[in-house]
Amino acid sequence: MFAESAALARVKPSATLAADAKARDLKAAGKNVISLAAGEPDFDTPDNIKEAAIKAIRDGKTKYTNVDGIPELKEAICAKFARENGLKYTPAQVNVSPGGKPVIYNAMVSTLNPGDEVVIPTPYWVSYPDMVLLAGGQPVFAPTTAENGFKLKAADLEAAITPKTKWLILNSPSNPSGAAYTKAELRALADVLLRHPQVWVLTDDMYEHLVFGDFEFWTIAQVEPQLYERTLTMNGVSKAYAMTGWRIGYAAGPVPLINAMRKVMSQTTSNPASISQWAAVEALNGPQDFIKPNAKLFEGRRDLVVSMLNQANGMHCPTPEGAFYVYPSVAGLLGKTAPSGKVINSDEDFAVELLETEGVSVVFGAAFGLSPFFRISYATSNAALEDACTRIQRFCGAVK
User: Which range is least confidently modeled, 23-32, 90-99, 120-129, 143-152?
Assistant: First the structure.
């Protein structure tokens, strides 16, 4: 008889992937569904990046590579960090993995022992706590509030840290809330971390280029150089370059940590796809002029969605600084009755009823560790967003 391992029993499947899969199944069955669950840009990968991949194939660059990245890509990553973040790294300090998830997981597996704690602000990307659990660690959740813009405050970080704390995972701009930390806000968190030298920082900067208005992006090792030697600065090509399926994530940090992560990869995934690596070289070294216009398009979509959701009965939607998500509250709908006759007792109930009644797929807030909210990805067309938000308004208007 099959029995899953104790490690696997500690975790649950990704709620975002599950919501998107259910929407796909309903579409395949003929139901008119708009999925706002998946977190990937609807733009196509730029042509110069595609051509670089095709050239790599034609040039025979289809063999195994160095386990954690080709030298050319590591050089491009070092140049990116210097150019955009004022951070100087050598190729020996760089890890390239088959996506952002393996970067995080390999860092956790490389460093966590039973009982070690990892501080994770809520709401969090669904995979953070489960990767910590798989690696044998213990997630410790530090709360944020909508009133504070879903951003971790220094006092709450201080309260979450214990002698067992090994890591803080910090995501800015955030999935799921879109919240992004200012330089001053990172400075306050850095001051706490300086008092706790045993705590390392994994900063997930995957949405770095998707910030709006006059917001200026900063990463924590840039704000506080004393944290440089205990920070893993993570990024990737998936969001800014519309390369989700190419599966390239990367990070830079202290050489002993990078060496440990390489050791894990040598016995698990081995190298990321060679073709994807050469495409990523072109992404980082090639023209960057499409990034800001794309961010401007996302900003317009954000404004559309925030405006329409705030017109829905019983709903409040804050305006985030970045990424391509909003995280609205459904507190005003709890305890009320959906058109189906079922009572909405939670954000999960709301998401289920919205999908069943109006065919709009969203991800409920409990999956991200903070209720009663839900996440919408607005990485789709304006027409689809207007249709979806109209359906949400109709659903909320029918709640009794």
Answer: 23-32
The pLDDT > 70 percentage for the chain reads: 100
Read off the tokens for 110.
């490389």
Q: SS3 helix, strand, coil % of the chain, rounded to 5?
A: 45, 15, 40
Where does 6-44+290-398 sit in CATH, by number? 3.90.1150.10
Distance CA 185, CA 318 (A): 18
Choose among 35, 94, 32: nearest CA to 66. Answer: 94
Distance between CA 61 and CA 271 in Å, rounded? 13
Q: 231-279, pLDDT tens digit by residue?
A: 999 999 999 999 999 999 999 999 999 999 999 999 999 999 999 999 9
Of 83, 107, 85, 53, the residue nearest 265 (C-alpha): 107
The closest alpha carbon to 42, from 398, 380, 394, belongs to 380
Q: Give, in words, the CATH class of 63-285.
A: alpha beta
The residue ranges of every structural domain in the chain are: 6-44+290-398, 63-285
> Pick from 196, 178, 164, 74: which is nearest to 123 by CA?
178
DSSP H helices, 5-70, are 6-9, 15-28, 47-58
Distance, CA of 365 to CA of 221 (rounded, Å)? 30
Q: pTM to 2 decimals?
A: 0.95
Contact 152, 189 (CB under 8 A): yes
